[in-house]
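Input/output pair, single chain:
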Amino acid sequence: MEDQNLNQYQPLESIEDVEEFYSAIRRENLTHKLSPERPYCYWTIETYDKSNGIRGGGGLGVLAADMRRVAEQLSVPFVLVTPFYPWESHQKMENLQQTDYHEERNYKDYGFNYVDKVSIRTATAGVELDVIEKRLGTSRFLCITEPNFGELYSGESGSDHRLYQEVALGFGGYKALKRIGCKPAIIQLNEVATFFAAIARLDELASSGMDLYEALVYTRKHTLYTNHTLVQAAEANFRYDQFEQYVFPNIKSSAVRRWLSNQFNNGEIRLSTPTIEIAELRSGVSKLHARVANYHDINGNKIKFKSVTNGVHLRTWVLPEIMDYYHEHNILTRFDLPVEREYEENIDKITAEEIRNLKRICRVKLNETLKHRTDQYGNVIQIPEDAFLFDFKRRFVDYKRPWLPFTDTDRIAKILEENNAHYILSGRVHSGDDVMFGKLMDLLKKIDENPILKERVHYLPDYDEELGLALSLGANSSINTPIVGLEACGTSWEKDIANLGLLISTHDGGVADCSSDNYLHVEGKTEEDEVKSLYEQMELAIKAWNNDFDLEYWVHTQLKAYLDICSGTRMMRDYLNYLF
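Output:
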């Protein structure tokens, strides 16, 4: 199941294909601006691509992996610069208690090739980093690693080790890029942890004879900062003495050191502050996010963000039979963009029988994955073909409220029992988030105390993209209930809609790109009102699934509103149009 959808496409091979794509996005001359020597360079601290041995922590990493997959499919010259973590964490359940364990990873086992070594410096020593790469069509992974690099997000936020990882990625990754003979046409910073890549480029220009102002102008015009976090104050701070230890030893230009020192306030710095200063191009990951993100420059002025809503690589995350249907019935072009003029008309021709038949295939795929997974009791589960399935499959943070459907255990137990329904709960708690981990354990105890929920609610630990894909396929309806105003985008809901599932959601993140009339909307002025609305929408989803007219109405409505938004090709098109 893990590799079923991965690479189920043929990249554009002929120059005619490539030129047709660029023409479709109205950028006919882009091939002159992007080349193997001057690629689109995408920096990220996190990538979620299990088939290539890199396991992320959530949506930030999934997005990075999908950006590279889309670039490969569309033959866009693209380098994804990211760490290869030699250790990764996993979870297991015993006696309703979840514990972490760790596994070592060797890049050679995943087809990476050793390139060379690059070095960075601390105040007391030099550190050598291995540079490894893996080429996939016109795209490539370019990774830095070393035995003591640790795992993703190891150490507390704002810790020395976290800063070391970010410095290694930025300065080491930039040296690695130069080592393979590439000069970035654009640097995209996937969140502020990648800030030091832009500093490395600024320092190269300033230390090579360009005055600081000219170097800043050049760097700004070629740097895009993509933000995924709504509130600037939520970031970690680093101290000046930490920069003296880990950052400044890697900067040659005294002018750049002074410029960076001036970004500190009372001896501390939030990386979004200098990232905003060094990137002229700035994007948010949904329309709502770009509008309400509360970020300010060093002078206190609010920053404007361009909206580029996250998309997904449809050929990775959608059942191949469903993708074939979209293509054969002129819903999507071969670039996975909506067919002009015919798009909505052809969606309206999808019948309830076709939806149910395709979802039966999806359920089989889900159960294949579940055969080697166990729930909170250590049991392998199988969801019957005739059972209705709800799921929650998102990072476990408080604002996403995974516990919300279980506010009234009697009510949800009644819904599940009377409708032959099950509920799968899965996701990851970030390392160090003890509060959310405690809430998860309390939720599992609450479920255990109700005999109906104990039978019908299944928590699956060790969440990864294999399980995320299986649930997107096999669930009838997904639950997405973030506190309105706190979700930047989210992409799990996009996979659910593209796989013909029914979305139950609050009006937040990328869901809010379109009207709330386009899905089963959870609303209310108070949390109590939202819980009541959630149960009503769960019952409505079950009824809709059993009524041809209602099922067609909701699936058609969701697809017409969101399938274009879901398309990773659309996301790449929007970025290319913004950048060039």
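Residues 160-179 form the longest helix (20 residues). The two ends are 38 Å apart (CA to CA).
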